[in-house]
Give the backbone structure.
Amino acid sequence: MRAILKLKCGYNQNMKSIVEGGGTGDYVPTYNKKRQFQDLLSHKNDFLKNQEKKEALKIIYSELEDFLEDQTPDFDEFMEVIGRLYINGFEICDDFMETYGWGIYLGPSIMDHSCQPTAEVSFDGNMLTVTSIKDVEDLSEVYISYCDSTQPTPIRQEELYSMYFFMCACCKCSHSAHHGKHGTNIASNNKNSSRKKNHKKK
Ligand SMILES: [Zn+2]
């Protein structure tokens, strides 16, 4: 609800959808254009294809209607917003890995996943810091882990697919597949298919 109200704040008559609201966006190193909420992927259709997720989302939508009444966006617009929140949200946790919040960080949400990450994310209050843990030349080599990368490959893959709708094909996953520990239906890790992060600093 807060996200929708925030987007509505930045919304004006010239915009087609509240997804275009939410401010001018975040600077991303080496990118010419600021990254805005509308640039994030929602995976709306993937969410709706899953009956269980669809039912849960309908419940959230009806609860939202109770609060926002005639301010409620239509279901399609709601899905565009909540899909972006689920796919791109960061779990905010302390040094003891206790989660105390959840947030959208437009710039950092550009980082893709690898089960062998080259960077990790930490928080000081709401301040997000990305620290490289391997030598990286530029942003294209920066990967964080969206899941617990110490888990066995099938568990990681299942979690990544169920939460972010992609099959990871990173080195670690591919290596595992070649050694027969996992099935052969590993699709390409489409770099545009998922942007985020329910991960914790490892
Ligand atoms: Zn992987």
User: Anything to note?
Assistant: Residues 6 and 22 are 6 Å apart (CA to CA).
